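Reviewer comment 2.1 asked that we show a complete input and output for one of the modelled complexes. We chose the 6-chloroguanine case, as it is the one discussed in the main text.
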Amino acid sequence: MKLDVVTIFPEYLQPLRAALLGRAIERGLIEIGVHDLRDWTYDVHRAVDDAPYGGGPGMVMKPQVWGEALDTVCTERSRLVVPTPAGTPFTQTMARAYAEEEHLVFACGRYEGIDQRVFDDAARRMPVDEVSIGDYVLVGGEAAVLVMVEAVVRLLPGVLGNPVSAEQDSFSDGLLEGPSYTRPEVWRDLPVPDVLRSGNHAHIDRWRRDQALERTYHRRPDLLERLGEADLDARDRAV
Ligand code: 6GU
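Response of the prediction step:
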């Protein structure tokens, strides 16, 4: 998979080369390009923004600069992803869909956003998604790109050491994951739950499922409402 990011803060995307993602690059599983938007300016000030039509606070990023940048970076096989608090929510389902793409291009806006015609124009040639990572406001899209790229790349075949961990994630069955324990058996007077040391794997599976249901009920009741009857068994309904 090829990933490109266009930003006025290329250094902010350095973490893409660290840890899990860095190893995925070294192993040739992904290729990441980070591009400085100002490379597509021609004036002495390298201006990327201008005052908004209609007035109001802040500045809007100029369409000419973004247009040339995207003309260079995108192909007819790209999907353009625009991080914005005004976007549709980024979910695990979208991460799974993005993991099937051959080329993702992220356009990081700052200020009050990017002239809308940039995306209207790009949408004539490629799919364009305006996406939010949550109900809060960031200064720019860079941190959101780090989040989305990590969520997508860990799903690519060969990236995680143990693919079962991706299959058992929170959200993979529509529930939050329950608690985990390791040695010692008692720590600061707190014991590991007996069932986990019982060796009875039917009991352990049932206990984990119940913990996931209870945690989801308390922390994310909205997720339980989205589960169909088909996703719950008779014992689930009793919890
Ligand atoms: Cl994707 N971008 C920005 N700038 N702010 C956000 C966001 C994205 N998601 C939530 N807040």
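The mean pLDDT is 95. We note this here for comparison with the apo prediction described in Section 3.2.
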